[in-house]
Amino acid sequence: MSQPLRAIITQLWTKNVPLLEQYLADYGPRTVLTFQGCVTPEFESMLERHGSDVVLIDSLLESMVTATTETFNERAALPFSDTVRQGIQPQLEAAGLTWEDWVRTLQDVATRTLPVSFALVDALDRLATLYEIELIAVNEDWMFGSKTLVAWGKARGIPSLHVEHNPTLCYPYTVHDQQNADRMVVWSEDSRRLYGDAGYDTERLQVMGLPQFDDLFAVRGERQASREALCAELGLDPSLPIVVLGTTLLAEHALPPELNIDEQVLRAYLGAIGTLGKGVQVVIKGRRPQGRFGAEQVAVLAAEYGLTAADYRYADGAPLPFLLSADVLVAVDSGLQVEAMLVGTPALNLMTETGFFYGPGLVPGQGVDTVDGNELAPAIRRLLDDPEHRQRMLERANACIEQLPRGSTAAIAAFMSQLALPAPRRLQASDQLMDWLESAAPTGNALRIILDHLAAHSPGRHSWAS
Length: 466
Known about the structure:
With 466 residues, this protein is an alpha/beta fold. The chain folds into 3 domains: 168 residues, Glycogen Phosphorylase B (Rossmann fold), CATH 3.40.50; 184 residues, Rossmann fold; 38 residues, no CATH class. The protein is built from 19 helices and 13 strands. The chain has a 7-stranded parallel β-sheet, sandwiched between helices. It has a 6-stranded parallel β-sheet with strand order 10-9-8-11-12-13, sandwiched between helices. Helix 1 packs across helix 17, helix 5 crosses helix 6 and helix 9 packs across helix 12. The longest helix is centred in the first third of the chain and has 32 residues. The chain is globular, with a radius of gyration of 26 Å. It comes from Pseudomonas solani. This is Glycosyltransferase.
């Protein structure tokens, strides 16, 4: 079977692969251009079922990075002009920084990122000469690889879509306040409002729910079987209450490290475990990457609270079995709380410094109370022991999720088709310089002069401006 010429570039997390499958099922085979980290055996099997193929962008990068690194090193050796220094120095001094420290930091970051970025752009250009690329679909557009994909797409006139990978529950601070993709799918009006507060153009935000939520609406009937399986795996008693404590992931690039949010959360959890006592079974759910606190590190910290392995279980894995098995779920401004609401599990939110300033995203009117560490154990107990309170919070949560869009996978796949270029064309080698210059500053007559000058000094090329 030959590869389809029509192609889509994706950077989708595993939970959103069903979205790509829906797109291929509805709109036909494609060549999928993606990164090695997005490919699993299940992903490859899905493509095969739909007559599609995968091409790894990474396969082109290795041969290009050496050349782009040499080019970068040549440019990096050039000093900044006095004009640049004079323009930036007052701002550095106002921030308590020196010119030398700023240059050193800038060069360090540039050395680690720009050569690969240059190579990625070259690789995408080469792929664009082979395939008719209609769309770029990513699960985030803030990190290095996907941000470059989206920027390249803008320069090439290829539309891009960012599908929110998890519900946004707090104000999108630091790196998350950049609206890079042409369009973004968000889970709710609350998410749309939060991004609007951060300066996003809300006309480019589509409230469509999230693909991974589709199955959660239908699995409430699987609670008992899931609970029995998890209890058998972890050595728990299905007849006793189970509380799942979801750990948070400290994003070092987004939060001041001195806040130690991950340790604060874990200490609040361990303190609550001691207060709840033996009648409640507690599972601390890890999250990969585990950062500073995997199972061994949690055990060391637990010992400070007089706790042993008999007082809790540490486990990791797909969240659904934990969500369905729990009598109460606790997390920190996390998508886990929304997913718990979707499957009918009461949830609590633990307050932290960042939650205080940037959230919380869910409120008691939506069925989720926010409590600090000292209030956590009593709040858990109330949900376990007070049937009227428990039912009231479940009803509020259910009313909240009933307002969410349904059938998100099919709806977003259709939206992708609307965004995609109806007749994409392959990039011609002669187009390369023209497209990049047209996407940058000089336009009109200034551009014509530059292009004619370059054409005159490029043997064997006709005038770009003709």
